[in-house]
Amino acid sequence: MNRSEKLVHDMLAGHRLSLARIISKVENRDSDLAAMMHLLYPHSGHAQVWGITGPPGAGKSTLVDRLAANLRAEGKRVAIVAVDPSSPFTGGAILGDRIRMQQHSGDEGVFIRSLGTRGKHGGLSHATKEVVLVLDAAGFDVVLVETAGVGQTELEILKLAQTVIVVLVPESGDSIQAMKAGLMEIADVFAVNKSDRPEADKMVRELINMVGLNDHDEHTWMIPVLKTEAVRNIGVTELVAAIAGHQAHLTVTDKRKLKTAQFLKNEVLDILTERLNQTLMAAFETKSGQELLQQLVLRETDPYQAADLISGM
Amino acid sequence: MNRSEKLVHDMLAGHRLSLARIISKVENRDSDLAAMMHLLYPHSGHAQVWGITGPPGAGKSTLVDRLAANLRAEGKRVAIVAVDPSSPFTGGAILGDRIRMQQHSGDEGVFIRSLGTRGKHGGLSHATKEVVLVLDAAGFDVVLVETAGVGQTELEILKLAQTVIVVLVPESGDSIQAMKAGLMEIADVFAVNKSDRPEADKMVRELINMVGLNDHDEHTWMIPVLKTEAVRNIGVTELVAAIAGHQAHLTVTDKRKLKTAQFLKNEVLDILTERLNQTLMAAFETKSGQELLQQLVLRETDPYQAADLISGM
């Protein structure tokens, strides 16, 4: 066995350090990646992948924590991936929150990993997809992907989830109208967290109205709206049941197949895009590449012509 | 002349409606795009491109407005591109701010455009790059690109600017340490806006310290830290002077050439990535593509093998 084979073998046997190492290799775009994915991939395809998002301060991390505890009580193995495409203006709040997760330490049935990056071209959503594949192959029953939830990158990442839970808090109420289109597009389940606050019922009503106004027929998933109070562990069992309902809906309607196909198409696209990026940067280092760049700078050729030329090099 | 030629011809002659139409074609990824860019591109390469970013509430839009007025007073033609990769949680605040810009209405020397999108794979930063190229070709002396400033997408977009102005407000002070690495990476000039507030001087000192701690030699740009009060038009002339200083630094040190080359490489990469995306999605629609997808779903082949196969199709 070579090193990659040993690492994958150990990971499949449940060795956590090997799992952590493989995830690091995914993050660092290691040269052994293709070989490792080849060995891993046949073991994947069994995990449920849930995405959790919402505005900052909605209590996502606490809720994720409670979901994990609830799943553990059912005997399920749970992986948590906290993704923070941290801008210089937000810092890595999500990472700090992980300290709360210490209650799971020593439990072999829970694995927690934070992913973050700055500025890599499309890198974070690709890496997250592959980390989910690895955790799936490692035998986790449910992979919870939590995003900081404030931009295009996060929405891209959420596409990898089969079920997306949008966590809101009563104070978000005023801006519901503005968010409407975007929320309906990504949410499979709404959780109104911190639901002990005065405006909670009003917000629930508004969300239910919003869901009801959407066009629907017997194949449409009617997005459930649940009240939770994660810090007191209220409503979490009901939330897990609603998610299970959505997972069943995916299977019954064949939507699961479509989602799986889309996930795999995107993964192949990401691999080819990464290769294209490397090939192109190398091409620009060659003599003819440097000449082409010079022609671009001098406006003797345009970027579309250059794209034609360089793809023929 | 065909339609594209007519449109570009009119745009180059200063026809604003043609300019607006071309920008819409860029946003919609029109099939005439390559032909239009071919005609436009030789006229580009003269504009200064400034990026303006900062946390929500820092007063970016007002400051951009003042910068534009200041440049107009110097007789320069100014284009403003407000980019908002709006998540469902933030809505399009930046678009609303544009109402303040009405003072420029009727001035042919100012052109304002908002760009936004949801979820398109890498689409927004590519479109923004090409919009900047179009405005450059249309003869604007300075293109101001303002981003909502909260994520990976925005940082990607800022790469197209020659000079990046990071706008902060005194209240951001507490989190400066957290932002430090990220800010130093993108900022060419700091503006502490709303500088009438009590904590302003403290923040300026902290930023100056931070800049001073950075490694530097005679080729390093020492990031200036300026106080502004955009609503009362205080400090704006000084800010413009600091930006001019950075632009001169770029020229003297050859960094301008490097930035131009990087911008053009990225544009070629974006074009090829877009084509790859289209080719791949079409390939998955063919009979052999569908079979490959089925093999992926059944775990008979892995995504890296599939990438090899499909790029050979």
Task: Walk me through the structure.
The structure is a homodimer of 313-residue chains. Chain A has 313 residues and is of the alpha/beta class. Chain A folds into 3 domains: 1-43; 45-253, 3-Layer(aba) Sandwich (Rossmann fold), CATH 3.40.50.300; 269-311, no CATH class. Helices cover 52% and strands 12% of the residues of chain A. The first copy, chain A, is built from 13 helices and 7 strands. Chain A has helices at residues 3-12, 16-27, 33-40, 60-73, 93-97, 123-137, 152-158, 176-186, 200-213, 236-252, 255-283, 287-297, 303-311, and strands spanning 48-53, 78-84, 110-116, 142-147, 163-168, 189-192, 225-227. The first copy, chain A, has a 7-stranded parallel β-sheet with strand order 3-2-4-1-5-6-7, with helices on both faces. In chain A, α9 (200-213) links the parallel β6 and β7 (225-227). The first copy, chain A, is globular and about 65 Å long. Chain A starts with a helix and ends with a helix. The mean pLDDT of chain A is 87. At the A-B interface, α3, α7, α8, α11 and α12 of A face α3, α7, α8, α11 and α12 of B.
